[in-house]
Amino acid sequence: MKIIAVIPARYHSSRLDGKPLADIGGQLMIERVYLQAKKVNELTDVYVATDDDRILSACQKRNIKCMMTSAKHQTGTDRTGEVADKIPADLYVNIQGDEPLIEPETIQKVLLPFGENTCHDIQVTNLMTQIKDPVELLNFTIPKVITAQDGRGVFLTRSAVPFPKGSIAVKYYKQVCVYGFTPEALRFFCTSPRGKVESIEDIEILRFIEAGRRVQYIEVNSNTVAVDTPGDLKKVREIIAQQFTPPPPHICLIISYLYHLCFFTERRAA
Questions:
Q1: Segment 238-266, tens digit of pLDDT
Q2: What homologous superfamily is domain 3-269 in, according to CATH?
Q3: Distances from the Cα of 49 to the Cαs of 8, 66, 82, 114, 186, in angstroms?
């Protein structure tokens, strides 16, 4: 099965301009997403899809496959649809370019419903993870997900839902912006106008739900942070910095000593 991953990357953003090129621990944000996607064995290939020469140039310098797409696209899914028109495949995975902490095993999960084939009407998959930080529940930049018992998407909103009237033991879920699409699903999206609720909430996956099309949700345990604001970028940089803790000074001295010992030993042997 041929599966193409597309990472939409738009330079201009209403809340954080140029974020695909933001430096995070010595790597560009778009570079981090690309390298994580490349670790997924099921993916046949990975492309960045952009409309900006600066992003194209940065990708080319780093040997990242990148494709120029129209500047008129309103969403990343539209951009993915243009790539699908140019590169035929059985499935397409849309990985948002502002998810620098996305885990390879999380990306893999979006493919599972297509292989299991338990629901024959699945054309779209999306991920969700439980909200553990109360601040995220009130953050309007984070879409919240409501599903039926079988995982079918019922609604997405930027509000804190569902309301805990009957019980306070409520689990809230946020959207993880990794999507799986069949070619047919992408054709539908790219040729259909925005729905009424989609236009209000500005959440593109609602286009399928409003049209009565099944979106299958898969729960994942993910610590990913979508970068929408300068505050999000700061948070991600702090997380990356914490992941790399330099060794203590005495360990550095030992490593340096061993390195030089090996170097001079090889010189003598030569």
A1: 888 887 555 555 655 666 666 666 655 65
A2: Spore Coat Polysaccharide Biosynthesis Protein SpsA; Chain A (3.90.550.10)
A3: 5, 6, 9, 24, 15
